[in-house]
Specification:
By secondary structure, the chain is mainly α. About 75% of the residues lie in helices and about 0% in strands. The chain contains 8 helices and no strands. Helix 1 runs antiparallel to helix 3 and helix 4 packs antiparallel against helix 6.
């Protein structure tokens, strides 16, 4: 009940709920059930990405709430995040509508020969990386102003965690660009071989 009383608590719960949904839609059984129930191939992947974006946006709102800065300074990153979130969601919906959807366990490899699908993944990973980078800066700023002790250590740990998330997103973008250019996908195949891979399209 207390989560409904404070905006920053609602943001935290929204971030956790979005993350839980994203992880749920990533489960093969859940993804197959969603696609089968709706008759839309790849819908679970879209829902996973949208849930992750919502979690990131709520997370930025939560991080900025207790920051020791003037209200106007705290509002700027939140408003920028909301604008970026709206643009990202709109772009993902448009690309999902125009990109051919295929049933495959290797999403990175399967989209290598499809520019629209690759663009969708690049937009998602770029948003994720940017959100993690902003969170890293904010956590680091608050950690420097916190007193010595467990609070500072915890904030530094959160900053390190979000920094690793930003690096991961950058690495994913590099893999996607490499695959689109014809390079090999780590743990997967090159673009020429992907065209012959056993990806079957649902009817």
């Amino acid at each position: 009940p207390s989560a409904r009383q404070e905006p920053w608590k609602r943001a935290l719960w929204a971030a956790l709920a979005g993350l839980a949904l994203a992880l749920a839609f990533d489960l093969p059984a859940v993804a197959a059930a969603v696609d089968r129930a709706t008759g839309v191939t790849g819908l679970a992947t879209l829902l996973k990405h949208l849930s992750g974006i919502a979690a990131c946006a709520a997370g930025i709102t939560w991080v900025t709430a207790p920051a020791p800065s003037p209200p106007a300074a705290r509002c700027r990153p939140v408003l920028a995040c909301r604008a970026a979130t709206a643009i990202t969601i709109a772009a993902l919906l448009v690309l999902f509508a125009i990109a051919p959807q295929r049933e495959t366990a290797d999403l990175t490899g399967a989209t290598a020969a499809q520019p629209a699908a690759t663009a969708s993944l690049l937009i998602f990973e770029s948003y994720l990386g940017a959100a993690m980078a902003v969170a890293t800066v904010l956590f680091g700023r608050v950690a420097r102003q916190a007193g010595a002790g467990l609070l500072r250590w915890g904030l530094q740990l959160l900053s390190a965690g979000t920094a690793s998330g930003a690096v991961y997103a950058m690495a994913r973008c590099a893999v996607l660009v490499s695959a689109l250019a014809g390079g090999a996908v780590p743990g997967g195949t090159g673009r020429a071989e992907i065209g012959r891979a056993s990806c079957r399209e649902r009817v």
